[in-house]
Write a structure and sequence with these properties.
Elements lengths: L9 E4 L3 H11 L5 E4 L3 H9 L4 E2 L8 E4 L3 H14 L4 E4 L5 H9 L9 E4 L20 E5 L6 H13 L3 E5 L1 H24 L6 H4 L4 H7 L6 H10 L1 H23 L6 H17 L12 E8 L4 H11 L6 E5 L6 E8 L1 H13 L3 E2 L2
EC number: 1.3.1.12
InterPro entries: 6-PGluconate_DH-like_C_sf, ACT-like_dom_sf, ACT_dom, NAD(P)-bd_dom_sf, PDH_C, PDH_N, Preph/Arog_dehydrog, Prephen_DH
Catalytic activity: prephenate + NAD(+) = 3-(4-hydroxyphenyl)pyruvate + CO2 + NADH
Length: 360
């Protein structure tokens, strides 16, 4: 077993996806974990799955991790600070500044509180969806503030590193502005676009390809949770949306008079600007490195994907990313395999020789 940085015990309040995953990851390193949840059912499931044990009256945790919904996080953090006067308390809510302000206003001991936010998740929630490796290689923000010392806050760094996360230091203000752009506004745009599909003819929906699926995937998220998140980060989100609205208005004006001088150039520049922005999204392991894609046609039969992965491995090529597209009732699917550029030609030759059909 790899030596851990934390000594434990670690108390986790709220055993949904994130709480259960933190517990599973720490238990895999031999760290004592105690669990608490408002739902006895969720608590029992998390204990049964090995994420930790139930809370006892004599527990003395060194670290408390609050994993509750955003609208009650400040209440729970304040209660934990009062209950365990020797513990450092953190939370994993997706908004940081409002929670800090609420704690200060109510006179909580913020010299022992530091907010954090793991940029990780899954489509499913609840303790049964927990995974010990959920945070491996994922950014995890620590939102430091002036009231807590580095020595005290360092225990949260240890938590992140023990779980395999990538430590990112930001102020609460920087964090909230950043997630407004890269997380909260994409949720709004995805939901608004998906809402346009509500009354769309079935004939139109049958034409949907991977582009629409990519754009609307997060529209399936929990509305109640997102009302809480957006309400807590309303100003930064609104600021980005207003700028986005101006971009859309420029695009619409060009389309409304497509024959006007410069209209097509305006559209081209907007699209090219999208290319530039997309190219800045970090690649695998947070490194700005571009990959090339190879699209392989896969028969809709059991075992075909496994065979493809085996053939790619035997070709000595690492899959950097993978996307699958499969239209309803189609007899084949498309596997888009991303690799480093220097491997594409060799992989194409190897797969073709093994009988795979390369699209395009």
């Amino acid at each position: 077993m790899v030596e851990s940085r934390l000594a434990g015990p670690v108390r986790i309040v709220g055993v949904g996806l994130l709480g259960a995953s933190i517990g599973l990851g720490l238990r895999a390193r031999g760290i004592e974990v105690v669990l608490d949840d408002a739902s006895p059912t969720n608590l029992g499931i998390a204990v049964d799955y090995g994420a930790g044990r139930a809370t006892a009256d004599d527990d003395r945790p060194e670290l408390v991790v609050v994993c509750t919904p955003p609208d009650v996080t400040a209440d729970v953090v304040a209660a934990e600070l009062a209950r365990y006067p020797e513990a450092i308390v953190t939370d994993v809510a997706s908004v940081k500044l409002q929670i800090l302000h609420e704690l200060i206003e109510r006179g909580a001991d913020v010299t022992r509180y530091i907010g954090s936010h793991p940029m990780a998740g899954r489509e499913r929630g609840g303790p049964m969806a927990g995974r010990a490796d959920l945070f491996a290689g994922r950014p995890w923000v620590v939102a430091a503030h002036e009231a807590i010392t580095y020595r005290k806050g360092g225990i949260v760094d240890d938590l992140i590193l023990d779980l395999g996360g990538i430590l990112v230091e930001m102020t609460p203000e920087q964090h909230d502005r950043a997630v407004a752009l890269v997380s909260h506004v994409p949720q709004v745009v995805s939901s608004v676009l998906a809402r346009r599909l509500t009354d769309a003819p079935h004939a139109a929906l049958n034409l949907a390809g991977q582009g629409l699926r990519d754009m609307t995937r997060v529209a399936a998220s929990d509305p109640e949770l997102w009302v809480q998140i957006l309400g807590a980060n309303a100003a930064p989100v609104a600021q980005v949306l207003r700028a986005f609205r101006e971009d859309l208005d420029r695009f619409i004006r060009a389309l409304d008079d497509i024959e006007a001088p410069g209209a097509r150039r305006r559209i081209a520049e907007e699209l090219a600007g999208g290319n530039t922005g997309e190219s800045r999204i970090p690649g695998k392991h947070g490194v700005d490195r571009r990959y090339t894609s190879l699209i392989v046609m896969v028969d809709d039969r059991p075992g075909q994907l496994a065979r493809l992965f085996q053939d790619v491995g035997e070709a000595g090529v690492n899959i950097e990313d993978l996307r699958l597209e499969h239209s309803p009732e189609a007899q084949i699917g498309l596997a888009e395999i991303s690799t480093v550029p220097e491997a594409q030609e060799r992989l194409t030759e190897e797969l073709t020789a093994r009988g795979w059909r390369i699209a395009g």
